Amino acid sequence: MKKKWFTKYLILALLCLTPVSLVKTNSAQAFTGQVIQQGAVGDDVIELQSRLNYIGFYHGKIDGVFGWGTYWALRNFQYEFGLPIDGVAGPTTKAKLVKVTKYDYKNPPTTSGGNTAKTTGTNKAKPTASNTPKGFSQNDIRLMANAVHGESRGEPYIGQVAVAAVILNRVNSPSFPNTVSGVIFEPGAFTAVADGQIWLTPNENSKKAVMDAINGWDPTGEALYYFNPATATSSWIWGRPQIKKIGKHIFCK
Amino acid sequence: MIRGILIGILALGIAGTAYWGYQEHQEKNAVLLNAENNYQRAFHNLTYRVDLLHDKIGTTLAMNSKNSLSPSLIEVWRLTSQAHSDVGQLPLSLLPFNKTEEFLANIGNFSYKTAVRDLEKDPLSEKEYETLKTLYKQSGDIQNELRKVQSMVLKNNLRWMDVEMALASGKEQTDNTIIDGFKTVEKTVTGYDESDQGVTFSNMQIKDENYNNIIGKTISRNEAIRIAKKYMKFDGNATVKVTKNGKGSDFGFYSVAVQNKKTGQEANMDITKKAGRPIWFINNREVKKQAISLNDASNRAKAFLSDNGYKNMEQFESSQYENMGVFNFVTNSNGVRVYPESIKVQVALDNGDIIGVSAEEYLKSFKKRNIEKPAISVDEAKTKINPNLKVMEDRQAIIVNDLNEEVLCYEFLGTIGNDTYRIFINAKDGNEEEVEKLKNPEETYDGVL
Questions:
Q1: N or C end of chain B, less CB within 10 A?
Q2: Is B170 found in the same domain as B271?
Q3: Chain A residue numbers touching B209 (CB-CB < 8 A)
Q4: Judged by CB atoms within 8 Å, which residues 54-73 of A form the interface with B?
Q5: Which chain A residue shows the shortest CA-CA distance from B36?
Q6: What is the pLDDT of residues A148-194, one digit of tens each?
Q7: What per-residue confidence (pLDDT) applies to B16?
């Protein structure tokens, strides 16, 4: 029994040791080889934040997302230690950080301050936050993904991005409500809302489509309406100037 | 005996069903009534606010003191936005009612622009006063029509649920007082000539929506495919489809769709007919585990842009969304960032492929600019910002401000506490053009995304 444990640990230790030989440091393990820049998410960012926190440059939550707080902390660090100030954690910056700070790999902090989220089971820290596009929360994105899934789940991917883009074009248009929820729940605007299909669980594809649309991809040529020619009941919609057809839907102004 | 029991059971059954049916009927009516009441509230709110709006514009006309003018214009702005949201709650989306909504939005824009202006220094011009007068008259017309509909609704107990049914079934022709009434309102508004509403309205857009600034030869279908090939990786199994834009589009474009039947991969791209500039491009494929860093991806995006003829682009935003990196580039013209000219690039973090480009903003804002020298110095501009802000970075930039004008500014990035702000100070007159709180990463909640 004991031997088994021993060999397991040996393998683990060896695994841990391999990267160490590459990055000459005295700690057990350090950053991977990547250059960390703003917007990045992951373990390296958690380590970066923890190390900056350790020497008092970073005061925010250790959430694994390289946001503005981390950016300024890193720049201040680079300034104080006479490194080139670029806000990017490259090899020299990382080496300096590793030299002057400590980081406990076995028990990485999840969040700093009072409200600590529990890491269950494994001792691996996971990012507890995520990037979201400006002006939208994760819940807004989920709501849009619901609408897109309900409206166009049988459509090609580009058709789903298009439906999300129409929702956003409507938010920006003076002829429609000014909020995502206002546009989606405008009575009679979307059939998926009227028949309850909006409450189906959206899949990954529809979320991705929504993210693409929010990030600025509009396959529709700024369309405000779309309809399925096979099922459209209103004659008025046929009179709108048509821009293009994607999948089963015709998009118009 | 048995017959008696059977009859008894059946009778009970019928009575039970009847009772259940009655309950269901009651419930349905309650739900319908609830929905109806919501519509009624929105409708009566709308007419009330249009009433108030008309009055407010009227009082604004009579005002002379600049001190009371601004609050009054703000009130007008608030009312239009509320009326606008009331319209959004009515089941009118299948009814052409856009003109009225646009009219409301226009009043809102006009009153906002004039309200935020320092009227002491820059009072209402003769023309703006005329515009206000026209708006007063026009809002009066709308008020009148809406009141007519309202009185009919009240007198005849008209129900909005019937409107919804009539619109949903596509039988708009059927005689429905509310629909007819709203159609009349729309007709009234459509009758207002653009010129009636003064110069302030027509100058709303500075963007070149139809890509008129893009100059070049008209390309053919085959050229479109050739350009698309530069962006997407074709292989032998892919089927290519090119379609022209529909008749309703203001500018010509080709849509190139490429599908690889074997892998199920699909890529799409729109290219302007004029000069063959890509508007957007998406390559939809499954992105596997992250293998390259965001920084590598960003360098690839940069290289990709310069390979494709976009000169002097500078990255100003980068974000990782799961296994994809999204980068936002703007033109840097001799150290001045031109924010309206932005291109977004999406990179797959599994192998570093460019899987998306969106150049729509860039193409719409692209033009030759004569960037003037700033009239005030950085230090002078710095005195205009909030002293609590710890300035970390500064540079010059061109942005589109609240009034839809392109202005040269000093951009300051700084922090107050744990939050980061981006502040633009006009480089000519030192006005604070825009203050933006930059987004912090959002905590993930269980079950969402």
A1: N
A2: no
A3: 222
A4: 59-61, 63, 65, 67-69, 71-72
A5: A187
A6: 999 888 888 888 999 999 999 888 888 888 888 888 888 878 888 88
A7: 93
